[in-house]
Amino acid sequence: MTPSQTQTEIQDQWTEVDRYIGDLLVPSDPVLDAALEASAAAGLPTIQVSPTQGKLLHILARSLGARKILEIGTLGGYSTIWMARALPAGGRLITLEYSPKHAEVARANIARAGLASVVDVRVGRALDTLPQIAAEGPFDLIFIDADKVGYPDYFPWAMKLSRPGSVIIADNVVRKGAVIDAGSSDADVQGVRRFYELLAAEPRVSSTAVQTVGSKGYDGFAMALVIA
């Protein structure tokens, strides 16, 4: 990146680097490609994680030896498939989706991936669904990738549904840098800022966040390890 580059040129470079890395380390996968195609055909927004980010979630789940995974925000099931593929025999993933339409697309994508017996897609407001799964925890990995306004409410539930050693990951926590604007009128930005405040004040986790650039633009992940 040079001072003379336009934002479009910068984004093109980020995308090309993502493509380069993906071609080498995340080769095309017919099942995952079909999930993206089916989601696009159904008119779902193209806001799913990138292939390199999906592979990162997969590696994290495998590294943890995760047997139980909770996902808040399913969309078309792309990230769901990545994480479910990391589960050992007998593992289970529960994913929560507000939209019945999105859930229908996700279920078809998950079934095509041969993971219907591993993944449970539950439909409804996450804040209504989360209390119902309290007895099904604790979860080894919790991935939050839903409405950003809800993050301050989802984090306390993630803590309730975790154990020491669990990892909580939240996507889209940089908002193209807008997260530093305390006076932002964007409800998503304010939701993420409140989430960070809760994360910082929670003594039972060790947490950090990383800024990311790539085909999805400028954003980031937050990660918390439950330590108590």
Comma- or semicolon-separated keywords:
228 residues, alpha/beta, 7 strands, globular
3D architecture notes:
Helix 3 runs parallel beside helix 4 and helix 7 packs parallel to helix 8. The protein has eight helices and seven strands. Helices cover 41% and strands 20% of the residues. It has a seven-stranded mixed beta sheet with strand order 3-2-1-4-5-7-6, sandwiched between helices. It is α/β, with parallel strands linked by helices.
Strand content: 15-25%
Uncertain stretches of 5 or more adjacent residues: none
> Using only CA atoms, what is the Rg?
17 Å
Assign an overall shape: globular
Helix count, DSSP H or I runs of 4 or more residues? 8
**Order of neighbouring strands in the sheet with most strands:** 3-2-1-4-5-7-6
Order of helices and strands: HHHEHEHEHEHEHEE
Strand tally, please? 7
User: What helical percentage do the residues reach?
Assistant: 40-55%
**Helices and strands: which structural class?**
alpha/beta
- Report the end-to-end length measured between terminal Cα atoms: 42 Å
Major β-sheet annotation: 7 strands, mixed
- Oligomer kind: single chain
pLDDT averaged residue by residue: 97
